[in-house]
Amino acid sequence: MAKRLARFGLLVALCFVFSYLEFLLPLPFGVPGMKLGLSNLVVLVALYSGGPLTAGAVSLVRILLNGFTFGTPLGMLYSIAGGVLSFLGMWLLYKIRHFSPVGVSILGGILHNIGQLSVAFALLGVAGLIYYAPILLISGAVAGFLVGLVASAVLPRLKGVWGRMG
């Protein structure tokens, strides 16, 4: 139990550090909300190495920590919507077992942006947000692809480490 808790703490800390790096070094594209999603790498690794409960808890704790540290209540609402929708989609593809971490991550990136756009539309009611959607969906797919590639490289290396920890 202590080793599982330590692993969970390590995953949450990594999410927090990756989120802080993205906060410090935003992408230079000038599109609000566009991020690489480095912390999603940790959630994806948690999904494949610790299962859906671990990954969901890591994702939720990450959203709350980041929201209280770097954000606002409104920002947390966007993050929760994106994070929950992203996680549910990734979990579904993970359960199907016909998709690689890259495919799972691409869906996660796209769904994260759909969740955030949905909150923006619900709060603002501006139909013009639909023009913003293609940019965010493409960026979500590209970011998901890159995060998935890194996760695919990291996961085999963790099997030995997690085995020794657990």
Summarize the structure.
The protein has 166 residues and is mainly alpha-helical.
What does this structure look like?
With 166 residues, the chain is mostly helical. The chain has a single domain, classed as Arp2/3 complex 21 kDa subunit ARPC3. It has helices at residues 2-24, 38-50, 52-70, 73-96, 101-124, 133-165. Helix 2 (38-50) runs antiparallel to helix 3 (52-70), helix 4 (73-96) runs antiparallel to helix 5 (101-124) and helix 5 crosses helix 6 (133-165).
Features of the shown structure:
single chain, 166 residues, mainly alpha, Arp2/3 complex 21 kDa subunit ARPC3, 6 helices, 82% helix, 0% strand
- Our count of domains comes out at 1
Q: How many β strands by DSSP?
A: 0
| Computed Rg | 16 Å
H-E order: HHHHHH
Per CATH, the architecture is Orthogonal Bundle
Low-confidence stretches: none
The CATH topology name reads Arp2/3 complex 21 kDa subunit ARPC3
Terminal-residue CA separation:
9 Å
CATH C-level name: Mainly Alpha
Please outline the major beta sheet. none
Morphology call:
globular
Q: Helix amount, in percent?
A: over 70%
Structural class: mainly alpha
Report the average pLDDT across residues.
88
